[in-house]
């Protein structure tokens, strides 16, 4: 197996890539040709099958035939759609959508009482911007339990429970604006979720302290308890924060900082040649917290530690220039900060951080290499075999490079750490390797989340899809194998082997997501799995109703005009995949009720007369007949 490429080999690689490009162009002009170049074009099912044969002849496993299951679950953020998507890898089939910060018509997320309780103080917000989905870990391995995701738009963090693939907790992080980078503690387990407050604001942002004095603006690093989803503590820093990651020792977190200048406009923000990576010392932060060395702001009780320059809790490592992504290598050796406005990435040796915190070395001494990769490095992924893959936004390429050799080169040795630059289409932001942010990085797949698709798909009007590309990295040469159009805007993704996941097939009746609704029924003396009852308290009416395909437990119920009606619907079907819906026509009321689940929704009966409700999840041959009447007396 050829692992090291010399310059001649590299030239061959580049030529191969050029040949691929040319044959792709030929393909685009002559549709009859389903040849070698087909791997790089959007595929129909038939083409997928035919190239799959060609590829399996070369040992590539990109094909997943109809009925076959994928090897990996992918969790994709949905950007300003506010959701999370589950993808199958390598087929790149979208398996499911998980509404999180958005409002979802199909499931009633944001409309149901259960989802409103989970959203808590932000139940009234109907929009969000999800960026970074990351799974909880135990000893640096995905544990299949939770996926955490940030909402940059409304400074929130949410948790998805992976047994049911639903959002089960959400918090609005106080004292900050725009939660951006988010990761989890990897070792010994995900006790904490870490995330960055991006935009700097006055610490007491009450409109009474100075709005103009920029020197009082701060941004905070946030440490959130993964189980309670409460903020454990925050750390005040200099500059603002962008992306973050954790080490594999349970000791350090690191965040990139752009705008160390604290500029308030573009020109000011990009004037400095260097910004920095802030490293947080977890043990010291926890000790300071215990010792009561914190302040509180804005009338809440969240402890804020002081990690500004000169603090014992943090170290500031200067790196060029407006760095963006921050990625830990799966061997636990390095933090890699991606230069964005610099063509370089900065490699920080985690083994040197003890000495840095003991002031035995200078901050820059922790930087062990700064390989030059190309224009606009944003994010780096790893294959667990010593190679790194960095997205080059401006060059529209992925650079594959050797980490050890980049360090040798930095030390003056004459080695070429660059292995290959693969064209992607176009302008990639994040990339991610299969299990690449864990100890189980397996070097099989790389996904490039390209921000622009331009000419890759049929035109669909001025708004175009983005393009998530699947790249086979199992060999010495990266091979593009699939284009996947996506809707706004997967920023980040992660891929977890299916062996780690144990999703449920039907709900269990004691699920905490609808526990409060069950408790309410008990108070009303209602057995949700047996009773169909209408309970009136003043002008508040609660309708308890069962559903078994193809009927609701009530064919009709009566209310008065202006009543506040709460529908509580329980699905008694035990059959996998038989989900019912409840929709009250003309009232904007819709929700999903999964097998064995209870869901509830509240609305005002503000229309007189006969109002039909119906099941809107296709459940039975007589699904159309699954309906009933709300009789509204004026
Ligand atoms: S960010 Cu969007 S491309 Cu929010 Cu992780 Cu880098
Ligand atoms: Cu029940 Cu459709």
SSE topology:
Elements: H1 7-29, H2 45-57, E1 72-77, E2 84-89, E3 93-98, H3 113-119, E4 134-138, E5 141-151, E6 156-161, E7 166-172, E8 177-184, E9 192-199, E10 201-202, E11 217-225, E12 231-237, E13 244-246, E14 252-257, H4 266-269, E15 274-281, H5 282-290, E16 304-306, E17 314-320, E18 326-328, E19 334-338, E20 345-349, H6 353-357, E21 367-369, E22 377-382, E23 387-392, E24 397-402, H7 403-410, E25 418-423, E26 428-433, E27 445-450, E28 466-472, E29 479-486, E30 493-497, H8 515-523, E31 533-537, E32 540-548, E33 551-552, E34 556-560, E35 564-571, E36 580-584, E37 589-593, E38 598-604, E39 609-614, E40 627-633
Parallel strand pairs: 12-16, 32-35, 34-40
Antiparallel strand pairs: 1-2, 1-30, 2-3, 4-5, 5-6, 6-7, 8-9, 9-11, 10-11, 11-12, 13-14, 14-15, 15-17, 18-19, 19-20, 20-21, 22-23, 23-24, 24-25, 26-27, 27-28, 28-29, 31-32, 32-33, 35-38, 36-37, 36-39, 39-40
